[in-house]
Design brief:
alpha/beta; Rossmann fold; Dehydroquinate synthase-like, alpha domain; 6-stranded parallel sheet; about 50% helix; about 10% strand; globular; binds zinc ion
Length: about 375
């Protein structure tokens, strides 16, 4: 077994860590930045407070970003960075502002549009990149410590990832207090995304020891704390544990990446509007069973390390957790009706991410899975 591990992001973790943002900007020597955030954070005053406390270093806000950001969102963000002559950006929010900001910063000093890089094959050029600081307000994507940006090109009808070593944030601030206002349904979905990252990195063909140890830790935390964070939103301890799970799962999948459940999540989100984490969770228990016996039962051993009797017990626990939090369990409830729709879902799920599964899965395997989910 050979592997490489690198994570060049400095992580600042803990309650009220957000107050250190001005000091961090100062230490990094940045002069003029744009705050990239969701509209919700602009409206509820969180963005404004961060700008006011930035010692004049944040000069503008960009918030025109939809959930599951589009390449159009990125191009508009790039425009804001260029117009403001920004030498850095702060991304504030969940995965969408992070992914948008990450891609925008990667080409900010150039003169091209993101599509050239996203689907056009143009490599990221270090002379066009400006640095980014990521501030997480949900416990889920782990995007604050990865170099991955997931973008949708509406014109080409493609949702795919962009990643490059130059796309890592310089610093990530994870302050659990910022997650207290996340509503239960979003807590459930983002928390299940954490679980998907932890598990998929284990059954990715790119799995490796450092990341697998992180997966064990993150998986245990999710099963111990996610339901509490969901049912008691103001429980700071539960929020802190889920923030920890999110960042540790982020380390877990930073190098092995994700696999089948994420591959299936893309059409479930794009065609049926299922939120990202909930969409990943829809097939997570199925993939746990698919992969259970692979590589001499490696997943069974992982499941035992996490406190389950085997991978099948882990799969059952995933189903129970989803059910308890009111997540979608069948295709019918998200609006899939015909067998043509199942064909389309299957076709769109067979992406390169599917090939990362330690067990090779065919078109028919995935189609039969979807049929059993009706
Ligand atoms: Zn995810």
């Amino acid at each position: 077994m050979t592997w490489e591990f690198s994570l060049p992001v400095k992580i600042y973790f803990g309650t009220d860590k957000i107050k250190e943002l001005p000091k961090i900007i100062e230490e990094l020597g940045y002069k003029r930045g744009v705050l990239v955030c969701s509209n919700t954070l602009k409206k509820n005053g969180v963005a404004e407070e961060i700008i006011e406390n930035s010692n004049g270093k944040l000069v503008a806000t960009f918030s025109d970003i939809r959930p599951n950001p589009t390449t159009d969102n990125v191009n508009a963000c790039v425009k804001a960075l260029r117009e403001n002559n920004a030498d850095f950006a702060v991304a504030l929010g969940g995965g969408s502002p992070m992914d948008c900001c990450k891609a925008a910063c990667a080409i900010a000093k150039g003169d091209d549009i993101i599509e050239s890089y996203h689907t056009g094959g143009k490599p990221i050029n270090k002379d066009e990149v400006i640095p980014m600081i990521a501030v997480a307000t949900t416990s889920g994507t782990g995007s604050e410590i990865t170099n991955i940006s997931v973008l949708t090109d509406l014109l080409k009808n493609v949702k795919s990832t962009m990643n490059d070593p130059l796309m890592y944030p310089k610093a990530a601030i994870v302050d659990p207090r910022l997650t207290l206002s996340v509503p239960p349904k979003v807590t459930a979905s983002t928390g299940l995304d954490v679980l998907a990252h932890a598990l998929e990195s284990v059954w990715s063909v790119l799995h490796q020891p450092i990341c697998e140890s992180c997966s064990v830790h993150a998986t245990k935390l999710v099963f111990e704390w996610l339901y509490k964070a969901y049912s008691e939103p103001q429980n700071l301890e539960a929020r802190e544990k889920m923030a920890e799970a999110s960042i540790v799962a982020g380390v877990a999948f930073s190098n092995p990446r994700t696999a089948g459940s994420h591959a299936c999540s893309f059409p479930l989100t794009n065609l049926y509007g299922v939120p990202h984490g909930e969409a990943c969770a829809m097939t997570l228990d199925f993939f746990t069973r698919f992969n259970a016996e692979a590589e001499n039962g490696r997943l069974n051993k992982f499941a035992r390390d996490c406190g389950f009797s085997d991978a099948y017990a882990l799969a059952d626990a995933i189903s129970d957790l989803k059910k308890k939090m009111g997540m979608a369990m069948t295709l019918t409830e998200i609006g899939v009706e015909t067998s043509e729709e199942i064909e389309t879902l299957t076709k769109m799920s067979m992406t390169p991410l599917m090939e990362r599964n330690i067990i090779p899965l065919s078109y028919d395997d995935i189609k039969n899975m979807y049929i059993s989910m009706k």
